[in-house]
Amino acid sequence: MKSWLWLAAGIVLAWPVSGVESLRNECGNKECGNKGSSCALSKGTVAYSLNRRRGGIRSGQYISKFVVRHPAFRGGGGSGLSSWTLPGWTAYNKALDNTPLMTKALTSLVGWAIGDLLAQLFLSKGPFDAKRFINLALFGLTYFGPAGHYFYNFLDAQIPGTNSRIVAIKILVDQLIWTPFFLAIFFAYVGVTKGNSLAMVQRKLERDLFAACQASWRVWPLVHAVNYKFISTKHRLIFVNSMQVAFNIFLSIIGFRQ
Predict the structure, then answer these.
(1) Would you give the distance in Å from CA 246 to the centre of its chain?
(2) Which of 154, 161, 193, 249 has the CB geometry, 3.0–4.6 Å to 135, for a possible disulfide?
(3) Contact partners, residue 165, CB within 8 Å, separation at least 6
């Protein structure tokens, strides 16, 4: 599967979150704290215009304006600010606030389950492998969700900010440290759950780890440019899991390749 197909599929799934967070980071729910910006809320619509001096443009000159509708901008207490709502979004955000670790673990369980389900239904040959499906869903639950929760919290705490230099540093840390470690854990987990010996796991790592890293480096830097620039810390994992569904199809195939 071509890497641009993974990217396109993930962006379609994750775009609503990125659009909301880009506005909320600038504007907040009701008013801007940034000088030179203006925001307005009306029935779930955020009209955002940015008036900022850039490259010799005079202060106050209109630069950009766009409109986003999303339930994340609902008013509290039944104020009726939202013209429509995404079922479960408000409850999901409350769960992120109250039980973030468990919520992100369950989010990753769903993401990994969907990725392997699609891989088995449309790309793999032979009967459906329920054991493989369960093992990959459990990997999302027990490792990817909790590890991602702590990793993104740590990274944002140690390297705060969203300017271009900070985003580039975060992408480098993500791809050069987190990605090889995560993929090594993934291949080892798959090997152990298949009953392979340590020698077989080692040979698998030697053969496929670098190829998997290369595939990640073709796709994820662009994804994380959006992630680290626009997505809030608590929503990073649902954004990544939305993108990861497509990449997990690749991982489930290469992970179970003999």
Answers:
(1) 12
(2) 193
(3) none
